[in-house]
Structures are given as structure tokens and as C-alpha cells.
Amino acid sequence: MPRITAARVIITCPGRNFVTLKIECDDGTTGVGDATLNGRELAVASYLTEHVIPCLMGRDAHRIEDVWQYLYKGAYWRRGPVTMSAIAAVDTALWDIKGKLAGLPVYQLLGGASRESVMVYGHANGKSIDDTIEAALEYQQQGYKAIRLQCGVPGMASTYGVSKDRYFYEPADADLPSENVWSTSKYLRVVPELFKAAREALGWDVHLLHDIHHRLTPIEAGRLGKDLEPYRPFWLEDATPAENQDAFRLIRQHTTSPLAVGEIFNSIWDCKALIENQLIDYIRATVVHAGGITHLRRIAALADLYQIKTGCHGATDLSPVCMAAALHFDLSVPNFGVQEYMRHTPETDAVFPHAYSFADGAMHPGDAPGLGVDIDEELAAGYEYSRAYLPVNRLEDGTMHDW
Ligand code: GCO
Ligand code: MG
Q1: Domain ends where: 105, 132, 156?
Q2: pTM score, two decimals?
Q3: I need a surface site. Which of 35, 120, 161, 278 has the fewest CB within 10 A?
Q4: 315 C-alpha vs ligand 1 centroid, how far in Å?
Q5: What digits encode the pLDDT tens for the residues 138-160?
Q6: Would you call 213 a catalytic residue per the annotation?
Q7: DSSP character string of 54-100
Q8: Atom of ligand 1 lying closest to residue 172 CA
Q9: Is 62 annotated as catalytic?
């Protein structure tokens, strides 16, 4: 039995902060798990160091399910992003270890490949509709079959999803939260124009996605969904805040545009009603924020009963360790839909050497035993943690709004 003898949290900032858990066994096998919670990184790091790592020592690394239950039920305080990201990091690292000990890539342990590779979507964004279309055409030329479109809103200084850098989108940009201004009425005018222009320029063989980032009321979202129907969006993401899962019923009553939600969910309980009532089409929960591979599989299995597909979150704040884990998961689940792929910077890729690869609009986790990803600790040590917050959002009259 591989006994856990050491575990440590590695914090690094190769352009943005990442928190990684590395677990070591008595036979020298190691495993890694992502524990990054954007803008709240040190909370998870300390949860792991102070409260989780001491409980892992001496345990059998093969007992993934038992360790998961121990950390979830044993804490008494269940769920929440900090707890579930910490549990996810342990769970991911243990799957990595099991794969290495078996000499198999993790997707083989999850039942094997259900497809040859997994379709990913890239991010086309720009200040204007024209800039966005230009970026989308580049993605199309690179072979992407699915593209997310976000563009600036005339009359607003900044917009969600529109980056300063053409290639790398990074919303956590300041050591105190920056403030954005939002106008729903201005936004609702521009998105249908963007999709109309996109269909004219890109044709109909590419999937087009859009992220609303929790900013609309259900009835506003219903209106937007209806306006976009002629352009056949692949999905509308995070139309409205999902604390009230029932809100999606109202959107559904007004549009056939497919709905995706879940990047901020951390447990099956956050999406149980959404799934059982068939109020969504894609569930976006991820390995790192939803309790690891073990819990995400449970969410996917529930979703599968209702023909709801997966569409895991994959922004830059999810480290290459999470990306690798997501790809093993995606390759194996029967109800895979799409995987988000926001490319990491070359600095980040160097800190996390990985076996996964991109070709022809799709990705594959590679066939290295385990997850096929590691952290170069020497390189990581050269990038010191630097506090960075996500922005906040206010309406034009100063009222705090959803970001
Ligand atoms: C997405 C997301 C991101 C998040 C970010 C928060 O769909 O990729 O909405 O842009 O805002 O991951 O940490
Ligand atoms: Mg999103």
C-alpha cells in the first residue's frame, strides 16, 4: 500500500497566482492537484496546510473515495469554494498517484476514452464587433470548431471578457479590486449585432458561445436568448446568478437558446434542481472548484440522466494541473459537451510541464501515466505570490452589480 508521507502547498505567480498541492508517498511516488481559487488563493493554501495535510499523513493513497468522504463529512462544515477546492486538490493528486502506480493515464482508470479527443472553445474578444470578428477568424484558421465571442459595449469604458492583451485574457488585474461600470440596456443592444456579424463572417459550421457573467435578470436573459435564436448559439453562459436555481425556469419559458451554468458551483447540491428539472443544457462545474475528479464524475452522472452535457470551466486561473485533470475527465465521460480552453502564458506552461496537446480544435490529455502534468518547483520558486483581485462591477448610478 502506498502510504502518504508528505504533502506541501506550492504557491507561484508566473504572471498570475497558482496554488498547487503535491503529495508524496513512501515509495517516492508523487501526485499534484490544483487548489487555485482566483483572488482568494491564500485561504485555500492555509486550509490545506493547517487543516487538511495533517490528516493525510500515513493514509493509503489508493483509497481515494474514502479520503474524499473523510475530508467532506469529517470537516462537519460542508461545501463552499474554499473547502471544495482543498478537497479537489487532494483528490486530483491521489488520482495522479493511482495512475502512476498503475502505469496508466488517468482517463483509463475512469473507464477509458469515450472519444478520440475533446472539442475545446477558444476566446475571441475585442473592443468592437469588427475586432472580435477578426479574432474569431484567427481562431477559425487555427482549427477551432467552437469560439466564444465577447465584445466591448459602445458607451462603456470596459466590458467583461474583453482583454487588454490580444492573446491572454486575465481578469484578476489589480492588488485591490478595479471597478467596472455596467449598463444592461446598452449591452442587450450589441450582442445580437455581434452574433449577426459573426454568422456572416464565419458561416454556420462553427459553434458560437457567449458568456453573460451573471449580469441579467431572468426575463432580460430570456429576451437575449430569443434575440440570439436566429444565430443558433451553442450556449449562453451564466445568464443570471444561480443561487436561485428556479430562476432558470423563467429563462427557459422564453427561449430555446441552450443554457450553460456552473463555473462557480462547488457541489452537486448547487446544480441538483437545475439538472433534475432540465433547466440547463450544459453543466460547467470544474475539477478544482467542485471537489475534484471524484465529485465531478458524480455531477456528470446525474446530468447524463437528463441529457445534459458537460462544459468544464477552463479559464487561465485554472492551472495546467486542473486542465490536465479536466481533459482526462472529458475524454472519459459519456456526456461530454465541450471544454473551455483559455491558453496559459509560456511562463505558466514552463512552470507546469504537461503532456496534453491541442490539434484541430480539440485536445488530448496524452498517455503519460497519471495526469501527465507536474510542477517545476525550482522555476515556481522564482515567481513570488502577488495579491490580485477580480474586478467589481457597478451600474452607471454607482449601485453594486454582479461581476
Ligand atoms: C470563463 C469565466 C472566467 C472567470 C474567471 C474567474 O467563462 O472563463 O467566466 O473569465 O471570470 O475564471 O476566476
Ligand atoms: Mg464564465
Answers
A1: 105
A2: 0.97
A3: 278
A4: 5
A5: 999 999 999 999 999 998 888 88
A6: yes
A7: HHHTT-BTT-HHHHHHHHHHHTSS--SHHHHHHHHHHHHHHHHHHHH
A8: 13
A9: no
